[in-house]
Amino acid sequence: MPPTLPDFSSSVKLKYVKLGYQYLVNHILTLTLIPVMAGILVEVLRLGPKEIVNLWNSLHFDLVQILCSSFLIIFIATVYFMSKPRSIYLVDYACYKPPVTCRVPFATFMEHSRLILSNNPKSVEFQMRILERSGLGEETCLPPAIHYIPPTPTMEAARGEAEIVIFSAMDSLFKKTGLKPKDIDILIVNCSLFSPTPSLSAMVINKYKLRSNIKSFNLSGMGCSAGLISIDLARDLLQVHPNSNAVVVSTEIITPNYYKGNERAMLLPNCLFRMGGAAILLSNRRSERWRAKYRLVHVVRTHKGADDKAYRCVFEEEDKEGKVGISLSKDLMAIAGEALKSNITTIGPLVLPASEQLLFLLTLIGRKIFNPKWKPYIPDFKQAFEHFCIHAGGRAVIDELQKNLQLSAEHVEASRMALHRFGNTSSSSLWYEMSYIEAKGRMKRGDRIWQIAFGSGFKCNSAVWKCNRTIKTPTDGPWADCIDRYPVHIPEVVKL
Amino acid sequence: MVPPEQDRLVYNIRLSSVGPGRVTGTDVVHELSGLDLAMKLHYLKGVYFFGSQAVEGLTITRMKEIMFFSLNDYYITSGRIKRSESGRPYIKCNDCGVRFVEGLCDKTIDEWLEMGDDSLDNLLVYHRAIGPELSFSPSVYLQVTWFKCGGISVGMSWAHILGDAFSASDFINSWGQYMAGLKLNGPLTLSKSVAKIEKPDDPTQLAKEPLSAKQVNPVGDLWVTANNCKMETFSFFLSKLQLLTLHVKICGEDGGKRISPFESVCAVIWQCIARVKEAYEPQIVTVCRKDPYHDINVPSNSQIISAVKANFSVTEADLNKLAMLLAEDQGLDERNKIEAAVEKENGVTDYIMYGTNLTFVNLEDAGLYELELKGHKPMFAYYSIQGVGDEGAVLFLPGPPSTESDGKERLVTITLPEDQLLKLKSELKRSGLLLATELE
């Protein structure tokens, strides 16, 4: 075994070198400006006030010149301010907390599976193994219709679930923000697998008696990353419509999508998907600047659908017996990694500090010109963000991202704990994770948050938020009654 | 079982599970005592009928919701049975839940009760024995059946391994109390196993096999009592007048204070059964009563099990003598003996208690009519035992609360091999217990 002690001391030295380098490059402008300013000040002091007045008089300004230059300055300033994109603020959001009566402990899930799939002990075994390693806890919830043996997924039950989830989240949002239903200008609802007529957005408009000139959208079929797609859409709309409020509702309705067959690749979603939903209020009104929680900085969307393998990796189809289910292919992780790389390549230059970008550029040039065998430099995203919200798609997704982005356990804690407490709630999981970070009191003013979501297609979408004001630990919200128990240690394999 | 055309009386059966609302915790285990294990082949079936006023505005969702809170206290009932490495069963409290069954019936409750066929009540209590997969078998089944008149029946199947009839009744009454808002969930307290019964027994006595429980052939993982003949149940009411007449007949005019209605009735039934069985008359009987120290919050098999031996011929005996034998302070309390016998083999052997001898169970104070919905007591409630051994069992139950001075004061349920039942009915008629009008 090679001695490790000398390496340690050298890595400490390296750490200081790195820190020094980062400080130098990130503040290069300030560092160059300071000597220049110092120089000018010394010159001015040396010259003395009388000399400066003489210098000023010698410049011979006349009225026309002064008027033109000031007009030019005002014109440029106006063009600049008008063309600047409007700031989009996230005023507040509310997550749906399912009642304890919907709770599904492991043992109940396994027993029901055993009774429903009685002809297929192998499938039951498979589900048991998935559940043991899933990273889910004993408090995740399924809608009432799925609690029956066998489940009774009628359209009425699906609507019932949609109503409970969406209306609870909206009521909670109204209470938190003081928003009046008549003040909603834009409504976007996203739910991937349940798309009735009239749409879920129409259902919301009907329930809350929203205005007749509301701009409503319903996104379906876009997978777990649809939440960020909705945010992107809301942002674009808020650029066009001044002084507006937009409400985004992200949810996934589980009732109609319980797979009743025994094809293994399709049984996975049954084990992981759980009830959940979130309602978010976005605004571009100046008045909201003071109470908004976050400001939207970037949204980056990457679509790998052009690649056939990526397109087919999450595919809804009929199995051999004609039962419809969502089939997950074996290369899901690899494809997710590829999509992430694509997304990072676009988002990196937007968010990374100059030091990281320079290093990346240098390694890139080095690889192209000098030696292709150099390891590609993975930029340190921990420099760009304080918090990470990785879509809780499953334990494997979080592990993969933690490895790829070299994140510590604390960075992915929000994702792991949201997966444990709520399961995979699809597009709303990002909001449960944000809520976790707030509940832990870690959200400070100026913190930058990166939300990453993957979805069928295959898509990788990111959103970058900046915290607008330090958020006090909330007394309500989905984590209010259990935050003290978290973080929990989640064993590799849970003994059922 | 039930004839096929009657099968469709209760339809639209939907199964689901209801567990504790609160997470009990990982690796919470409830150890089963020897007495619990001795009762594992027996099940209690209880039915409660409620009129429409009691359930007006009550939905199944609400009932289930309240059950979630009630089960926070009774998390043991929501666990599943596993075997340790030595083969001894224990309960893993994994919050799996009780099985909740919903059904519909096109008859009114009155029409149903008029049918008078006891076997039909199997349709109102969804019952499955524990096993063959122990860890996927619920110990408790609850069935709510909606009748045409708007009333309901609540059927409970309770595995005796969890506790005796008094515990089962406490469990369902607790649900009623939560419904009425009389109870609120407290913090989670994991109940310790019930303390061993206090009476210090003579070790030589303990070593002997108990009289009231016997070992049966190994049943493996399917916990069903093997009977050598088909067992049938029938029940009849006793009016206040009948009880009074009987009391006078047995105790004389001075009214022996030591003999309660339970003992008098059981004495008569004992003699009738002895007459039916002729040469094989039961000399030893088992009597089960409520333990005065019974803990209302923890389900347990704490009922007093005593063995009573008659050293004389039962068929010719004086009813007074028989009744005195059955009295409360007579008979050997066999609980410790049964416990010791089961523990000798570390709980791996299979025993039965009910039906080892002719068993009399006093459920007068089981609180059958304490389950209230919206302040209304049940119209009618009764319990029966599933898995009784060949010698049979007699249950003495309270009758429905009524304002009439006469009527249905007590209910007697008798489970015996079917070939003895007809002869027994005529014997009971002769003794005056069974009135002619009650026979079909």
Automatic annotation (TrEMBL), chain A:
The chain crosses the membrane at residues 20-42, 63-82. GO terms for cellular component: membrane. GO terms for molecular function: fatty acid elongase activity. Pathway: Lipid metabolism; fatty acid biosynthesis. The active site is at residues 224, 303, 387, 391, 420, 424. Pfam families: ACP_syn_III_C, FAE1_CUT1_RppA. It catalyses: a very-long-chain acyl-CoA + malonyl-CoA + H(+) = a very-long-chain 3-oxoacyl-CoA + CO2 + CoA. One of its GO terms (biological process) is fatty acid biosynthetic process. Residues 386-466 form the Beta-ketoacyl-[acyl-carrier-protein] synthase III C-terminal domain. Its EC number is 2.3.1.-. Residues 80-368 form the FAE domain. It is an enzyme of class 2 (transferase). It is found in: Membrane. Keywords: Acyltransferase, Membrane, Transferase, Transmembrane, Transmembrane helix. The keyword Transferase applies. Belongs to the thiolase-like superfamily. Chalcone/stilbene synthases family. This is 3-ketoacyl-CoA synthase. It comes from Theobroma cacao.
TrEMBL record, chain B:
Signal peptide: none annotated. It comes from the Eukaryota. Pfam families: Transferase (PF02458). GO terms for molecular function: acyltransferase activity, transferring groups other than amino-acyl groups. InterPro entries: CAT-like_dom_sf, Plant_Fungal_Acyltransferase. Belongs to the plant acyltransferase family. This is HXXXD-type acyl-transferase family protein, putative. It comes from Theobroma cacao. The lineage of its organism: Eukaryota, Viridiplantae, Streptophyta, Embryophyta, Tracheophyta.
